[in-house]
Input
Amino acid sequence: MTRIALIRHGSTAWNKEGKMQGSTDIPLDDEGLEQARKLGIRLSDEPWDIIYTSQLSRAKKTGEIIAASLGIDDIREDKRLMEVSGGLTEGTTEAERLVKWGSGWRQLELGMETEQTVLTRGMSFLDDLIIAHAGKRIILVSHGSFIRHLLKQLAPSLVQDATLKNTSVTRFTVNDDKWECELYNCTAHLV
Output
């Protein structure tokens, strides 16, 4: 059995401002650093083998802080874990998008990455991961929209009625290509 924890990075200034981050490299803010520390402490009670992160600094730093708490030296980056590209919408708030492109902005060609492209790269990564690290306990630190897309594929019956919280943990067990969600969007370490 392989265990995989999908973790959203800690908070950033753009999260608080409601700006679309996408592939723009925005660092963790002070709260995000503290969230990552608290998550590292929480996860230190569990055995984990390896950490993969997106190469964007907000995910990478979150992973490094967790790794330090767990005593894990094996941290790897994979660009397939990167956030969904927002194209021209990156750096804008919802109000700014409405003013600039109108209420139908989501249907416009603004250079945003398609759901199919996200799923193709995400599932390719997970397929490679399961082969390379079968039977291991793996932490993946990535981004909210990217993780939500994967969850639609991995756990289609899962009700995703809330935004994934910063440093939330969503955990799966994988047996014979069957993914079972054990925990969803959990931030018990922040209370």
